[in-house]
Specification:
The complex is a heterodimer of chains A (142) and B (150).
Chain A: H1 2-30, H2 32-54, H3 72-113, H4 125-141
Helix pairs in contact in A: 1-2, 3-4
Chain B: H1 2-30, H2 32-54, H3 72-90, H4 92-113, H5 125-149
Helix pairs in contact in B: 1-2, 1-3, 2-3, 3-4, 4-5
Classes of the chains: A mainly alpha (142), B mainly alpha (150).
Transmembrane segments (chain A): 37-56, 68-90
Keywords (chain A): Membrane, Transmembrane, Transmembrane helix
InterPro entries (chain A): YdcZ
Chain lengths: 142, 150
């Protein structure tokens, strides 16, 4: 059952690649910032409709939630802006590897200390092995 | 300069991890669709301001491009929704590593066939071995998490 959730996340990653590849083409015509903007506007509409019809949660809770819980959108745009700045300098390959390395290391640190409301999972032998394997994979792929 | 850019991009990875963790926390009370919606809605608000001041392209040309190029929004929304779904169940590290694996695998397929105007890069032996190592990484994360849960 848990394994299915891993598959869901793998699918999410595949969707991210499709997004990037297609948005790159769109960006050539409309502009880089504008293509991100289009994605956020259209995504808001799609998710707004799905929330209305399929949402089972409690949207008004966002008014009561601690404010730092609401920074997901801001962080997403910070990420996009950083990529727009860095890719012309260091290229897409190095940028992707740096993002992935940064992501893997910080997510382990976040969980190790249980920051940002995550359940505490200490760094263990398996996690270090996983990072090493990912490092080797990145070298082989790029 | 280059080193500075690499460090900046590492910080980019950090913002993604923080986003996944924060969204995972919010979704426990707000719901999965609701959290994905809020992330997109606030992101759209911020980008509206950014595009007005710094945009150099032409947003209105979205009406003229081939329609398939507009599907990127659907993929973007799917990514965020699926991540918000996965993080509370398996944790942010496992979710991130799984996402990265899906991302790399799909990029290699896109490269192999040269889809979406990308340069054709064949799926060669070293890429296959890379895939094997990624699966091994996934196995380690899965095993490590199982041990912690037990």
């Amino acid at each position: 059952m848990k394994l299915l959730v891993y598959l869901v996340a793998v699918l999410g990653g595949a969707a991210l690649s499709m997004e990037g590849a297609i948005a790159g083409e769109l960006g050539k015509t409309v502009g880089k910032l504008e293509s991100s903007y289009y994605i956020f506007i259209m995504g808001t509409l799609i998710l707004g409709l799905t929330t209305l019809f399929a949402g089972k949660g409690d949207l008004p809770y966002v008014l009561k939630a601690p404010k730092w819980n609401l920074t997901g959108g801001l962080l997403g745009t910070v990420y996009l802006t950083i990529l727009v700045i860095s890719i012309p300098f260091i290229g897409i390959g190095v940028s992707m590897v740096a993002v992935i390395v940064g992501q893997m290391i910080t997510s382990m640190i976040i969980e190790h200390f249980g920051w940002l409301g995550s359940s505490k999972i200490k760094i263990n032998k398996e996690r270090v092995m996983a990072i090493v394997c990912m490092g080797i994979a990145l070298v082989l792929i790029f | 300069m280059s080193l500075l850019m690499v460090i900046l991009t590492l910080i980019g990875g950090l913002t993604l991890s923080a986003q996944s963790s924060i969204n995972g926390t919010l979704s426990k009370k707000t719901g999965t669709f609701e959290t994905a919606f809020l992330t997109f809605a606030t992101g759209a608000m911020i980008l509206t301001i950014v595009v007005v001041f710094f945009g150099q392209g032409n947003i209105l040309s979205v009406f003229d491009v081939p329609k398939w190029q507009l599907t990127c929004a659907l993929f973007g929304a799917s990514y965020l929704f699926l991540t918000v779904l996965a993080v509370p169940k398996i944790g942010v590290t496992a979710a991130n590593i799984s996402t990265v694996i899906g991302q790399l695998f799909a990029s290699m397929i896109i490269d192999h066939f040269g889809w979406f105007g990308s340069k054709e890069v064949p799926f060669d032996l070293s890429r296959w071995i890379g895939v094997a190592f990624m699966l091994l990484a996934l196995y380690f994360i899965f095993k490590g998490n199982k041990k912690t849960a037990a």
